[in-house]
Amino acid sequence: MAFHVEGLVAIVVFYLAILAVGIWAAWKTKNSGGEGDRSEAIIVGGRDIGLLVGGFTMTATWVGGGYINGTAEAVYVPGYGLAWAQAPIGYSLSLVLGGLFFAKPMRSKGYVTMLDPFQQLYGKRMGGLLFIPALMGEMFWAAAIFSALGATISVIIDINVNISVIISALIATMYTLVGGLYSVAYTDVVQLFCIFLGLWISVPFAMSHPAVTDIGFTAVHQVHQAPWLGSINSLDIYTWLDNFLLLTLGGIPWQAYFQRVLSSSSATYAQVLSFLAAFGCLVMALPAVLIGAIGASTAWNDTDYGFPDPMANKEADMILPIVLQYLCPVYISFFGLGAVSAAVMSSADSSILSASSMFARNIYQLSFRQNASDREIVWVMRITVFLFGASATAMALLASSVYGLWYLSSDLVYIIIFPQLLCVLFIKGTNTYGAIAGYLFGLVLRITGGEPYLYLQPLIYYPGCYPDENNIYIQRFPFKTLAMLTSFFTNIIVSYLAKYLFESGTLPPKLDFLDAVVARYSREHMDKATLVKSDNIVLNELAPVNPRHSLTLSSTFTNKEAFSYVDSSPELSNTEDN
C-alpha cells in the first residue's frame, strides 16, 4: 500500500479542528462557575448543557467508531445481514427507556455520578464493588474504539498502526484532561457532524460504482453473497433476543449516558435529550447500513481490492473503510475516511471522562477523602484521565481480544449494574446484603456461561449449546438475561430476608456487620438529607438523620440547593424534632 499524502492531510485537518474545539471548550469551562465548583463543571458541565449541544453529545455517547463500523459489518456479513444489526434499534430503545424511567429520578435528586444512589443507599463498600464492572465497561469500550481506529487509519495511509493509535489517544486525552465534559460535549458536535457529512457524501459515489449491483435487488436476491437483509434462524431466536435485551436494557446503566443526563439544566431537559439522542442514533445508522449493503452488493474482483473478497480475507470488520477506499473517488474517499477516523474518538473520550469522574468522586472523595478540597478533586480527575487514557491505549495495542473483553464487561454492566439500578431507584427496602448477594449470583452465572471471544469454556451447559470451530461451546439459551433476572430477584429476596431476621430479633444486632439494617444510618451510608430534596423521598426515612452542614460536606455533595431547602422545610423540622 502506498503512502497517501492526501489521506494524511485529511486526518491532520480533522484532528486539528477537533483539538481546537476541545481547547476552546476547556477555556469555556475555566470561565464557568466559581472557585468552589470547578470539579462539578468538569463532571457535569455546571448543569447547563443546552438542548442542541446536549442532544449531539448524548447521541455521540453511542455513535462512534464501534457503532458505525459494527453496523456496517453486521449488514455485510453473509448469513447475518440487517436482521442482526441490532445496535441502532437496541441503543435507540435504550435511550427512550432511559428517558422515560431513569433520567427524571436521577436528575431531580441532584446526583453527580451514576454511582451516587448506590453509595447513598448501600454504602461506600458496595459503591466500590459496583465501580469495578462500570470501570471495566468504560475502559474496554475505549480500548476497542482505539483498536478499531488504528485499523481504520491503516486503510487510509500506510503508517504504523501503533503510531496512529497513540496519536489519536493523546489528542482525545489532552482535550478531556483540560476541559472535562465541556470539551467532550463540544467536540462531540464536531465529530458527529463529521460522521454525518463524511458518510453521506460518500454513499452516492459508492452506489454508482460499476462493480456495485443495485442494493434493492441484492436485499432479497443472492448475487455475490446471501441477501443483505438477512434472516433469523429459528434456533437462534433466543440468542437474538438475549443480545437485543442486553443492548436495550444494558445500554442504560452507563456513566457516559448519565453524565449527560445529570449535566442537563432540569429533569425535563434530561428526558428530552434522551429522546433526541434516540432519534439521532437511528439517523446516524442509516449511512452505515447502506455502506454495509453496498459491500454485500459489490463484485470485488472488478475493483482494485481484487480477489479474494473482504469476507474471505477476514476483513469484514473493516468493510466501511474498505468501501470508502475502493468504491469512491480518491478525494471523497479521504474526506470520508478522515472524518470517520477523527469521529471515532467521540465515544472514547466519553468513556475516559466517565471512568475518571466515578473514581474521583465515588472512590477517592466519598470513600477516602470526604474533606478533600475542590482543587484536589480536580487534580485527581486530571491524573486519572491521563492514567485511564494511557491504560485504554495500552490495551488497544497489546490485548489480542479487546472486543472479547468489552463484550464480557458490557455483559457485566447488564447483569450486575442494571438490576442494582432498578432496585436502588424503584424497589423500596433493598439493602446492602441483598445487593452483594445479587452481585455475586449474577457474576457467577455470567462467568459460568462461558465467553467464545475469550476462549472461555462454559461450566454450565444450557439447553441448545453447541461447539464452534474452536470447540468452544456457544450458548443458544438466553443465559445473560437469566443471570440478570436472578441478580435482580436475589437482591430483593435476600434484602427482605435480612430485614426480617434482624428486625424480628432472630439475629442479634451485632451480626449486622454491614450496618445495613439495624444501624441503617451509620457513617458507611451517605446521608440522604445532603443529597436529595425532601420532596423527592419519603420523609420518615430522614427522621433518624441530622443533616451535617459543614463546609467540607457541602463541597462534597453538589446538590447545594438541598441544604437551604432542607433547613427551611417545616415538615422536615417537625420530623427531626420528633
Automatic annotation (TrEMBL):
Its main location: membrane. It is found in: Presynaptic cell membrane. It catalyses: choline(out) + n Na(+)(out) = choline(in) + n Na(+)(in). It comes from the Eukaryota. GO terms for molecular function: choline:sodium symporter activity. Homooligomerizes at cell surface. Interacts with SEC14L1; may regulate SLC5A7. This is High affinity choline transporter 1. It comes from Aquila chrysaetos chrysaetos.
